[in-house]
């Protein structure tokens, strides 16, 4: 077997993941509105994928880069394959939307207008009035002629393109475009018709219907929505940047005008209009997607949010009080007694927010240090950090300005924190700080004590309700020392001479993982018990994969729970016979990174922020931490066991590279996410 | 004493380093954090001779950052020391002043001997086996950036100490320019070290059986950590065999590797000098040494080891090298200390000055090895060019001046004000007066007066010499010393003989 045959291409593996999300949208056992949400997610996922991954491949092609990836594909071959798969994927998306969702929604009393021509006179009047009063004032139509060049179409914006004929000079046809304003809601509720259904129309249709009013001296020959996706990868020369914050601000502006890499148009677009768009956007035929339905399905998330359809949704999941914490007792006191494990979103993220809030107000707290990658819009953590600084605490915050698509957001609150008196660090040149760590230094009666929170997910109270993540509180001295060293390092100081507990990327983490895997291989070689269970978001690091193949060859039992990309081939005779890979895609986004190593009968458990991806191991600051308390180990073991037994939401990676749902015959149905939620509820009611 | 936090900052040759400790009577000294910022002061000082404005600015920025980290732990006491990287810069005083202005920190610039002494203190306080090692015979190798200090201990005390210009940074700076030309670069480094080390062996090692070699300072903590990383059970002990074979740490890159290589080669070379089979690497760094000294004073810790004895041993060792008449020294020392102790209320000096007096006595006639006629001047020059472990350069200069004017009048402050503060000058004058008085009591070098009684009554200091010998010479010469004594202390000493 050649080397490239041992790996799956990462982009195609990602597209497979999006297919798994789409399968949730098509699963009739799931409430309709939840399925809608999944379809919306697949659309936003795909947008991001094009803006970053496809854009990057295109850059490689443009730069003449011909080196093959680990799966033996050139950049151009990858693009060709991606475009091919994406066309098919989008066909499935819209088939699902048109054939399944629209009739099902209508049946449930919600009608989405597909053709404005079919509105009742009353509805048409309503739409026209809405246009006149709400929409028209915020529109900026732009015509193109010899004196006015083709306008810059913003990335991801929805626009309506039109061909116009001057009523006086009938021999010339001009192109015009108008951006569908993002300040207005995409869905507009209009009066019901005879079906007594709640009826909504999309904003672009409202504009389309009234487009003639925008070009009074012209005749509108045709008008169709279109959407452009651009290269949105930032290219920041950190070494040269005098001020990283200002440099990123500059680059963010450029993101709107990157190279066009995908053009979406409605299926029935006028050929002349399409030709104009193609020419002026400089985009190839293969990158044009003619869509049988509304562009940009992310509006479905707004439909999900409409009132009155709760019966079509899952019951709301309310994060429960963590079972290892007593809400009536002091948090610091409880951490002093023992390490505490949190399992979100089944267990509430509030203790983490409270940890920072309490620290901000506690007179004994001297300092708070935290890394922030993505936070919510009105983050209570940010507010507490600012409050802490105002209360005279030493507050150091590492704000990762390069967190993709959160750059702008992060700049805003980095400034806010600085203004409040926090010491804001922007991280290390060339590395993204992805680790999730909080340190609280407290002066207690018997001396300085450091409280540490280490997590697998971001300090984001909003996503903590949707993502499955783990967190651990500890005040063990060795973790505290390492946490201090992490922040010293992030401030630009040399790494300590040695670490007690934590392993950091990019310095030591790869070696640590490889050493742990190889130890299992050696144990298997010697006939000792050897087993690896690893749960992560993505697995595509060639070095780690090869080490896993070697472990498999030695007979190590390897169970991998990989939600997204997986470049490893599982269960292939002679290569990975003992490796089993499953992907769980369910209500919550699987996000925790957990690692188990049998270690000859003395199992070691680790958690952390890193996936087994080159970017995590080489280009990010990541933390891996051991979980040592037996009670916590038992809990993690239970979590892994349940996930490995999931029969409802698990997809198994087959030796041929495809994913299949678990064959449920003879197995008790088990949805691991629902099981964990029920367990968390039960723990509270049993208290 | 409740728990307090304390910081030490080492403005070192290759990095600025800060450690914050928690100090309490219950738990002793516990390290809270260690921050390091690479800054190769030594490279600039050794090559250009001074530190540039940019470097000074970087030092200040870093120290201000350190201050912020100190606040994280509510640190309200600290000590900042600098060694050769700053000390040897021509603009050292300007830099110290700039640091004060820009950061508020007072940096104390230590001499090599002071730094070494702090290391020894830390070794004695923190390394459990130190006492047993030095009892059995140990060579302590303190590897600095500019020089190394080799100290031989036997039967629990310092027997000999020697400073050699073989510091890891110095070797790097001197020899790395030849790296490309050298066929075997490691052999070149070894060759460079060989001459000095062989001389050391010839002078000192042949007479003492070295059973333990303890290495400390410079890159040793880095090597320690590296070895611990590869072997979690490593506790500092490394056999000679392993040391000679061990591959150099490949994880250490660039400048760090350049510093580590000379250190490892030096250790190997030293291992070859003795038959000792065990090497001990100490993880103690300079910050730890400063902290150990602080804790000893703050917590009033009593060390089993007598450091004053070491300083005196080192001085005696120097005296021995210049064939000083040790009987005369012992006699004068007894007399001088008796006078010093009896007139404590008159001179108002403390233990440290008493120690300086002792060193002065031990070395006051070392110059006669060079020139009998200009003994004092030669003694002065020998002292000024010799590293005396445990005392600062300023103290060394005080001792040297005390000795220089042993037989002549001490110059006025106007002549010495550039080198000493008024207080320091007064101390020199007082010690000089006592030395003169005591020295004259053994003018014949025959130790006729073994002990004296000193009484102070009605403004007269009576020194009663208990001896049967004829002390006409001493009595005759006593007047000159008495004049100086009266001038300094305002009382006239009178020498009486009691025959018993």
| Quantity of strands of chain B, as a count | 14
Helix content of chain A: 25-40%
How would a textbook summarize the main sheet of chain B?
6 strands, mixed
Most extensive interface, chain pair and sizes: A-B, 22 and 29 residues
Indicate the structural class of chain A. alpha/beta
Low-confidence stretches of chain B: none
Q: Give the biggest beta sheet of chain A.
A: 10 strands, mixed
Decide which structural class fits the backbone of chain B.
alpha/beta
The average pLDDT of chain A is: 90
Average pLDDT taken over every residue of chain B: 84
Which key features would you list for this structure?
heterodimer, A: 687 residues, alpha/beta, 10-stranded mixed β-sheet, 8-stranded mixed β-sheet, 22% strand, globular, B: 500 residues, 6-stranded mixed β-sheet, 21 helices, 14 strands, 18% strand
Note down, in words, how this protein is organized.
The complex is a heterodimer of chains A (687) and B (500). With 687 residues, chain A is of the alpha/beta class. Helices cover 37% and strands 22% of the residues of chain A. Chain A has 18 helices and 27 strands. In chain A, strand 23 and strand 24 form a beta hairpin. The N and C termini of chain A lie far apart (57 Å). Chain B is of the alpha/beta class. Chain B is built from 21 helices and 14 strands. In chain B, the strands form three sheets. Chain B has a six-stranded mixed beta sheet with strand order 8-7-6-9-11-10, with helices on both faces. Chain B has a five-stranded mixed beta sheet with strand order 3-2-1-4-5, sandwiched between helices. In chain B, strands 12-13-14 form a three-stranded mixed beta sheet, covered by helices on one side. In chain B, strand 12 (451-457) and strand 13 (460-466) form a beta hairpin. In chain B, helix 13 (307-321) runs parallel beside helix 16, helix 14 crosses helix 20 (422-440) and helix 16 (351-363) packs across helix 18. The longest helix of chain B is centred in the N-terminal third of the chain and has 20 residues, at 53-72. The interface between A and B is medium-sized, with 22 and 29 residues.
